[in-house]
Amino acid sequence: MFLRKVESKRKSGYTHTTVQLVESYRNEEGKSRTRILYHFGPLDKFLQADADKLVDSVLKMKGEVFLDHLEKFGSAKNFGDLFTIFRILKELKFFQEIEKIKESETRIEFDLVGHINALISNRINDPSSKLKLLSWLELVYLPELKSSGINYNNLLRSMDFLIKHKKRLEDRLAESVLSIFDLSLRMCFYDMTSSYFETNNLSDSDIRCYGYSRDNRSDRVQVTIGVVMTEEGIPIAHYVFPGNTADVSTLQEVVKDIKDRFGDFREVSIVTDKGMTSDKNIDYLLSGDHSFIVGESKTKKMSREILSEANTEQEDKESGFTYEKVVPYKYEVDGIKRLCNLRYVCSFNPETYRLNAEKFKVKLADYEEKLSEINVKDIDSADKYSQLKSWLKSHGMVKWFDLSIQGDVVISKSKDSVLSSVQAGFGWFLIKSNLSWEWNKEELVSGYKTLWKVEHGFRELKHSFDIRPMYHWTERRIRAHVFLCFIGMVATSVIEKRLKDSGIDMSWEKCLHEMRKIKVIDYRTKSGIYGHAINEISKQQEKLFRAVGCPKPKLGHL
User: Fold this and answer.
1) Which of 294, 205, 295 is nearest to 243 (CA)?
2) Per-residue pLDDT tens digits for 377-434
3) CB distance 215 to 468 below 8 Å
4) Domain residues of the chain, as ranges?
5) Helices (H) and strands (E) in the chain — how many of each?
6) Are 409 and 381 in contact (CB under 8 A)?
7) Would you identify the CATH topology of the domain 1-64?
8) Tens of pLDDT, residues 20-53
9) pTM as predicted
């Protein structure tokens, strides 16, 4: 295919030149011929009016542009990190599932995928309120956004859509993650956190309540949030409970839900911390034939006995040590009493021991100082007693001392047996399990330690995605807000796992920060053609795209 000039002489002697787009071909006899595809008209008019536009349009389709054709550059918008997030969620078939639901169940006419993509990308890239998100959109280029008409009301409608179809969408993400990484779900790790609100204006049936705050904001109402992860640290399910929900009361509901959604749990071990441990929950797990590794409090009578034995067996405090004891346990299933053996395993860390001992000394010194400070006050002895008791309670030391009033001072006497018991637990953590002897005690400890990945996920949830504080007040919007953060956790967990699998020691945050340097730049040519260009991609960025399983961004992706 090529351009051809065609000249024809007029009687006046003037030569008329036109431009044609032609192509070569062979006829049935195999002879070479040409045929006209398009007439551009007179050469002078074509050169003045259409040639530049044609060249610019062809270059734009190729993703190229000649610098001498440019008249001006426009804004440069963040693109690389948003492209990565979009491609990950697309690979997880998240957006495809949204389109399926939209086609079959709703009459939403606006760009639903575009709005949800904006909500998730903003939560990962630059967490803000929905109103601030509209300003953020002016600084970024979202891939495959069908329309620039994103508005506040449609963002809220998109949140309502998400939470209405939460289970189906969450299951789609989990199924995709398990399939992509060929995960067997050998262990499920469950833990909880809380997130507070800036307002205390409540309704009678409000999900926001006062409760135990992990943020040390007991003055604020909150919700509690549970997350289930694989042993690789990838979230597969989440739950939002009223703010006054005790951790221990959620375990049975979560285990039942996970079992219903992911099949037979007989081969899957439940791993959770001591906050979920109660006789009732242990009985529930045993009666359902579930295997488990759970944290155990060091203050229980059985725990103190086992820790005492472990300290006796231990040779020194300078190296790690693991101690195990098997204890018979009675439970009941359908009115029938049964007996099993539970494995109690104590693990000692010398560094933790040193830290615990140092903190203990500091706490005792602080207490002596506070005791002296209160006793010299010119107030009634009963008030001194009350203030000291309150201080001990707030510092978790109320069981360490006996207080009494003698004259105008408070006398404090340490409970030596209690203090000895506290010190006996320094450097140790205790777990119990019903796993078979195919798992040695070191493997049980290693399995339990993996729970830190859930705690790491909560830190990401609170800090990187700014889940707190929340300004929503209706239950469905609160749940939708948490769901958005959860989706962000899934996408970034996939990125982080792939970086690790590729041997790249980098967090997902640093990875996306590097990709954020890839910009989409607006330009206008001298012929009036508007277009986009992508700045040069470095070797390091290409390596990161390969590692996380994303193609290198091109203009065709815009």
Assistant:
1) 205
2) 999 999 999 999 999 999 999 999 999 999 999 999 999 999 999 999 999 999 999 9
3) yes
4) 1-64, 352-425
5) 19, 16
6) yes
7) Nuclear Transport Factor 2; Chain: A, (3.10.450)
8) 888 888 888 888 888 888 788 887 777 666 766 7
9) 0.79
